[in-house]
Amino acid sequence: MSDRADFTDFTDFTTSTAPADVVRRQYLASAAGDLAALRATLAADVEWTEMAGFPLAGTYRTPDGVTSNVMERLGKDWDDWTAHDDTYVVDGENVVVLARYTATNKATGKPIDVRVAHHFVVRGGLIVRFEQFVDTARVREAMPA
Fold first, then answer.
1. How many beta carbons lie within 10 A of that of residue 31, not counting itself?
2. DSSP class per residue in 24-79
3. What is the predicted pLDDT for the residue at 1?
């Protein structure tokens, strides 16, 4: 493959509106701590739901609301919080990602390595809905009592 083809493929990914590509860009931005790039993947009226029992449980709206109430708060309580996406199942605008979270709680020093499933709905090249499914007890075990 030529350098030109590599560049073209990369450019296509960065601008692609395909649901799996949009979701993948969100994971890459999150892992890099690039909240501006993450917000760029979210619709203005996004609904982002963290599972009941999870430390940040609730539904957050707007790109700023998501990053300030989820990503920034995770960064305050955990070192190296990362969602490792590994399997994508795509059905039209629905993208389900099987992944795992790894991090170390800053207060306790306890690590987590827990499986998670995320359901995204992508329309018009933007994430309009997100729902998290995770073993919340495993996450809470690493946190202060």
1. 15
2. HHHHHHHHHT-HHHHHTTEEEEEEEEEPTTSTT-EEEESHHHHIIIIIHHHHHHEE
3. 39
Q: Flag whether pLDDT at 100 surpasses 70.
A: yes
How many Å separate Cα 40 from the centre of its chain?
13
Q: Would you say residue 4 has pLDDT above 70?
A: no
17: helix, strand or coil: coil
Quick check: 9 pLDDT over 80?
A: no
- Tokens describing residue 90: 């795509």
Tell me the C-alpha distance between 137 and 126, whole Å: 31
How far apart (Å, rounded) are the C-alpha atoms in residues 67 and 69? 6
Q: How far apart are CA 48 and CA 6, in angstroms?
A: 33
Could you tell me the strand order of the sheet in which 78-91 lies?
Answer: 58-61, 42-50, 126-134, 111-123, 94-105, 78-91
The pTM (predicted TM-score) of the whole model is 0.89
